Amino acid sequence: MPAVAAPSALRHLYEQMVLGRVFETEAERQYKADHIGGYCHLSSGQEATTVGTMHALQPDDLLVTGYRSHGFALARGVSPEAVMAELFGRRDGCAHGRGGSMHLLDVGHGYYGGWGIVAGQLPVAAGLALGLVRQRRPQAVLVELGDGAVNMGAFHESLNLASLWGLPVVFLVVNNEYGMGTSVARASAEPELYRRAAAYRMHGERVDGNDVQAVIEASDRLLTQAREERRPALLEAMTYRFRGHSVADAGLAYRTKDEVREHQAQDPLFRVRERLRAEGLSDEDFDAIDREADERVAAAVQFALDSPEPDVAQLATGMHAAGSAEQFARMRPGSAFGEQALTFDAGLGS
Amino acid sequence: MSATTATATDAATGTKVMTYREALRLALQEELARDERVFLMGEEIGVFGGAYKVTAGLLDQFGEDRVRDTPISEEGFVGAGVGAAMIGERPVVEIMTLNFILVAMDQVINHAAKIGAMFGGEVRCPLVIRTPNGAGNQLTAQHSQSFDGWFAGTPGLKVVAPANPADAKGLLKAAIRDDDPVLVLENLPIYKEKGEVPLDPDFVTPIGRAAVVREGTDVTLVAHSFATLRALRAAAGLAERHGVSAEVVDLRSLRPLDVETVAASVAKTNRAVCVEEGWPSYGVTAELSARIQHACFDDLDAPVERVGMAEVPLPYAKVLELAAMPGEDRIAGAVLRSLGLAR
């Protein structure tokens, strides 16, 4: 794929960005309709960063994210059906209803998980990169983290290991200005987060995370370096989330309506639309793109609704590898139980 | 005793007497040679030869790619083990002592242990973490701990704790070959213990199987790791001085827990004394007591007794440290109480 999108590719990028926005808007609606539970972190406003980085990531590269991950999953090629079904906690979800919003994955697409502990995914990503090196594979890992994660010890340890060992990993800091409700200025002694990389003799840079083409250019360049020279890097993408930290947060205790409105006026979707308009796309084209996204998301919702709930008898399925039932067989005397009963028995004791 | 626990032992290959430390090293050596995906990571395991010399010589034999020194960065390199395991490597991570696993707990409990279930079985994490615990060397409060029960109570993990050289080799090999995350609890005072070790490279000790390491009829002592040695010594003393016939069950695995072997023994002796190196409150012996009273309610002739570390942060002075530890005298006292021979 080219580093900078050709006009035809730009339309495709725009379609993906629209899909991400429509998906998140619908997810919020479905959450309020009680079809989605738990935490649900939306990425509306951050589409240029999610879609741009996923455009630069090659099919055999690996992806790791934190918990604001719907957009990354979709842009990586996970079907809206599998993502929505996971949010609904259904059997056909990408984690079979075990993970929910925060723990999407698709190993077939090289997506090794949405992770829920801030910065906990960073050592894992370093390990995936180490695995690539050991296997002499020429790919790289892109790991997403929020601006709040840079103050965790795991961030420091992971960047140090990545640089020390020459691991092919790009740390993508999605700086949306707030870690939950705490602004970067209130959380980070060095608020220019990309500068942190210098402490590890690692290249760090900032990019306008609302400009999809700039994001593609920067992430492609850094991923290429990671693949070809085994040089890790930190890319700080400056963006903004339009919604609260999660669906449960109105997002106004720590910022003003005016601030949100100002950012919405700079919507990353508008920018791409203006470029496409300059290239000749018409209102009808944009309507068609919107309609297609609506239809895809509606189909995903229907798929999720139709997908069966997980079988309660399969509560423990997946927890342990095949063959483990025999190891656990003596945990409860007098009961020969298999993996299905494992959780109940091990959980209830005796 | 432990040769009886072997599977697929080739009689022709024989056994050799070696220390627990050497048995661990042999297991690592064999698995490194057997499977290219196996590699070691940890602090001071390479150039330094291992803080406790378990990995001595392996860097020279296998090179830096297979024996990887790390900075002091437990959360980082345990997590790196998790990630490498997720794409099919077989990392064996050494944590210098169990005390230092506390700074990596997020990776152990919130990451490694969660992967199988949380991702719906779509990806596995065949990670081994091996680390010694235990008290007895005047290492004081921050370096003398046994949190075995914390890990054994965590769904998604497997926890093994060998008590002799043969099982040190057999369980470490079983852990490396297992497709799930396994914590191998070693023990500092036990490293120098000697025993017969099968030389068959395919010898493994199955996970989830306890062993009766001393047969007896009057009382069952249940223990794991170094506490098993204490229990065996206490049993010998009890036979000699009091004519008490104590059976000793070595758990070997804490999760899965072989309750069946424990219950069969207690059904025979009608008395149980559980011993551990850790603090007993909410610990391994607490779990055992609950399991035994349920499985053996009609068999018990006395309440289940427990012996563990005194519930204080371990003090430095030798006399205080010794008083805190679950020594043979305290184990023997608990056995005599169980038999109604002492109060």
Question: Topology of this protein?
Answer:
The complex is a heterodimer of chains A (350) and B (343).
Chain A: H1 7-32, H2 47-56, E1 62-65, H3 70-76, H4 80-87, E2 111-114, H5 121-134, E3 141-146, H6 153-165, E4 169-175, E5 178-179, E6 182-183, H7 184-187, E7 203-208, H8 212-229, E8 233-238, H9 257-265, H10 268-278, H11 283-306, H12 324-328, H13 339-348
Parallel strand pairs in A: 1-2, 1-3, 3-4, 4-8, 7-8
Antiparallel strand pairs in A: 5-6
Helix pairs in contact in A: 1-2, 1-3, 1-10, 1-11, 2-3, 2-8, 4-11, 5-6
Chain B: E1 15-19, H1 20-34, E2 38-42, H2 58-62, E3 67-69, H3 74-86, E4 90-94, H4 105-111, H5 115-118, E5 128-133, H6 148-152, E6 158-160, H7 165-177, E7 182-187, E8 194-198, E9 211-214, E10 219-223, H8 226-242, E11 246-250, E12 253-255, H9 259-269, E13 272-275, H10 284-295, E14 305-307, H11 318-324, H12 328-338
Parallel strand pairs in B: 2-3, 2-4, 4-5, 5-7, 6-7, 10-11, 10-13, 13-14
Antiparallel strand pairs in B: 1-8, 6-12, 9-11
